[in-house]
Amino acid sequence: MDFPQLANTLYLDNAGSLPVPSPIVLNHTKDLLENIYGNTHSGSLKTSSAIQQTRTRILKHFNTDENYYTIVFTSGATAALKLLAETYNWNSKSYYYQKESHTSVVGISNIVSQTKNMPVEKCCFALEEERIKDLSTKKGMVAVTAQCNFSGKRFDMGWIANEQSKVHVLVDAASFCSTSTFDLQKYPADFLVVSFYKMFGFPTGIGALLIKNTAADMLSKSYFGGGTVQSIGVEPLYYSQKTRLYEKMEDG
Ligand SMILES: Cc1ncc(COP(=O)(O)O)c(C=O)c1O
């Protein structure tokens, strides 16, 4: 039985998180006990190749590949949204988000307002679903939710295909992906956030920000730490960051 903890129990929260499946826990534990994985940033061949394979498989799952998208691992969908908000170039741009958004999407407005040093109501706008589709001439980012985590309602993503659009499209697919697959070829969002514990139930603490490669030049990051650093000196302060997008974004 994959879910022994569900014996004699009715579980109604699959959109929030899948219960922990025993085969994943058992295989994961076996793998850790039988193999030696070095630190992710220390050049361990086994670790690097496992991570590379995982990146490729995840992109395939979303019907794309590394020619079009880059995957940045984070600790969850919220961390992915925060990372995006902190690195996006908000200069002369606004933030639009769907009214039925998760708190983590709404929270971006504080970062935008502080970065632009502007009252939130002048640069961040909560909109009804119908208005979201008409923003293609606006400069900035529009955040939509593929599935509302509160009502379970799914929203039309068909309009995302518009390549002429000026506005960058962020899709929060955290809840949607727990029971469906988001197709990035069909709906080529500029940014997509997901949370893997909602898809697999175990382990927690891992999610991702998927970045369309053509939107990557909108992001720049000032913090550096751990594996993102290529070289460093402290007197005088000098550092260089690694060059690949995911290497720059995945601190620690
Ligand atoms: C639609 C949606 N977005 C974002 C999140 C936040 O995900 P995480 O727990 O990975 O930060 C959730 C979690 O329930 C969600 O349902």
From TrEMBL:
> Under what name is this protein listed?
Aminotransferase class V domain-containing protein
Ranges for domain Aminotransferase class V: 11-244
User: A Gene Ontology biological process annotation?
Assistant: molybdopterin cofactor metabolic process
Q: Name one GO molecular function term.
A: molybdenum cofactor sulfurtransferase activity
The signal peptide stretch is: none
Pfam families recorded: Aminotran_5
